Amino acid sequence: MEIIPAINVDNFEEIQKRIKLVEPYAPPAGGWVQIDVADGTFTKNTLWHNPTDLAFLQTSLNIELHLMINNVDYRIIDWLLPNIKRIVFHIGSSDNPGFVIDKSREYGKEVGIAIAPNESLSNALSFKEYVDLFQILGVSPGLPGQKLEEITFERIREVRKFCPLCIIEVDGGMNKETAKKAIEAGANIIVAASAIFNSKDIRRAIKELNALI
């Protein structure tokens, strides 16, 4: 079980700032941070989406990129940078998910498939032997601060039913109440953005989420 802070902002300076805010509260063995990437092709909004910035990113945290971009088959190479530990891409953004997985492996990355509320669980699960995790979104991709869709918990249970050993990460609308339900439904990893960064006390917010696991 793990809590991962998520950063969904529109500029690199804010990414750097938020990483520094959560670094002190990472697990001693090495924690994670998720950076959301959206260029307006897969989502209705844009967030930060310039891979060249990552050359200047220094952190003790493991970096997970959540790629919310179309044509990921042709663009994945831009994001396979040395300081990136894990790539998470959407099943609906790729014509050839196997290629994206293989190319990421070639560069030594962990790989996850993200599944938005309108994307097929069965399509994603067909790759369960080849990825490290599934990321189930509780909201539509892109916009921060959305309320979690209640069907999310059933989707977690369905993935757990068909893949008992899969690692399930849940992202979107996570707070103390929804994270608890997600864990009970079978989630292994909780990704939280607003619940952490909108808090007046980040240390306490992270501690309270960690108390759930």
Describe the protein in words.
With 213 residues, the chain is α/β, with parallel strands linked by helices. The protein has a single domain (2-210), classed as TIM Barrel (Alpha-Beta Barrel), CATH 3.20.20. Helices cover 31% and strands 21% of the residues. It contains eight helices and eight strands. An eight-stranded parallel β-barrel has the order 1-2-3-4-5-6-7-8, surrounded by five helices. Strand 5 (110-115), helix 4 (121-125) and strand 6 form a beta-alpha-beta unit. The model has no long low-confidence stretch (mean pLDDT 95).
Any chance you could write out the topology, listing elements then pairs?
Layout: E1 2-7, H1 12-22, E2 32-38, E3 62-68, H2 72-75, E4 86-90, H3 97-106, E5 110-115, H4 121-125, E6 133-137, H5 151-162, E7 168-171, H6 176-185, E8 189-192, H7 194-197, H8 202-210
Parallel strand pairs: 1-2, 1-8, 2-3, 3-4, 4-5, 5-6, 6-7, 7-8
